[in-house]
Amino acid sequence: MVEKIKDAQDRTLESLFASDPIADDGFSERVVRRISRKLWVRRLTLPVAALIGGLIAYEPVAGLIGMLGSFISATQVDFLGPVQGALPQVQMLIMGGLLLVVGLVSMRLIED
């Protein structure tokens, strides 16, 4: 249990922390405001850049997908013919992915 007896150092520390803050004409408040503004700029920079990049790349990617689809339909090759029975079903892939996510999240929670 914590001792309730205070020595000279404890009383000195208490008197230092109990004193009024030093008047700084709002300097501390301006610093905190500037730091929070920079923090928001950093948080928004990556999503905005990704959105702009996605808007710029939309038309070329759509053209590439269309060209790939026309190429596959023109060749008429069955890519999955011999291995189609060996591939897992979509439901099995989704369940495996969910189990992986649950496992990773639970391991993260256990570490904390």
Strand percentage, roughly?
under 5%
Mean pLDDT: 81
Can you write the helix and strand succession as a string? Answer: HHH
Alpha-carbon distance between the termini?
27 Å
Silhouette = elongated
Helical content stands at over 70%
Radius of gyration: 31 Å
Structural class: mainly alpha
Largest sheet composition: none
E-strand count: 0
Low-confidence stretches: none
- Helix count, DSSP H or I runs of 4 or more residues: 3
What does this molecule look like?
The chain has 112 residues and is mainly α. It has three helices and no strands. The chain is elongated and about 90 Å long.
Provide the descriptors you would attach to this structure in a database record.
112 residues; mainly alpha; 3 helices; 0% strand; elongated
List the helices and strands and how they pair.
Layout: H1 8-18, H2 27-75, H3 90-111
What does this entry show, briefly?
This protein has helices at residues 8-18, 27-75, 90-111. With 112 residues, it is mainly alpha-helical.
